[in-house]
Amino acid sequence: MITFLFLVFLFGILGRLLCFTCKATWSIMKMVMFMVIFPLVVVMMISGLIYIALPILVVTGIIGLLRHI
């Protein structure tokens, strides 16, 4: 009985830890994308490289939508 209770609590704690790591990873990834990729795309669009920036923007948008599903 104590072993069963230990396993229940162990999986509960590991589940919460897994959720926390997924949320932290997602937040860090969003921050990196916002600080690195977004300015790069904006600079490309401002500098006249719209023919390069637009496909990159479309591809990343599609990848983002597919990962969200």
Please count the beta strands (DSSP E, at least 2 residues each): 0
Indicate the radius of gyration in whole angstroms: 20 Å
Please indicate the percent range of residues in DSSP E strands (runs of 2 or more). under 5%
Number of discrete helical segments: 2
Structural class: mainly alpha
Number of domains: 1
Task: List the secondary-structure elements in sequence, H or E.
Answer: HH
First-to-last CA distance? 40 Å
Describe the overall structure:
The protein has 69 residues and is mainly α. The protein contains two helices and no strands. The chain has helices at residues 2-46, 50-68. The longest helix has 45 residues, at 2-46. It is rod-shaped, with a radius of gyration of 20 Å.
Record keyword descriptors for this entry.
mainly alpha
Summarize the structure.
By secondary structure, this protein is an all-alpha fold.
Blueprint (SSEs and pairs):
Elements: H1 2-46, H2 50-68
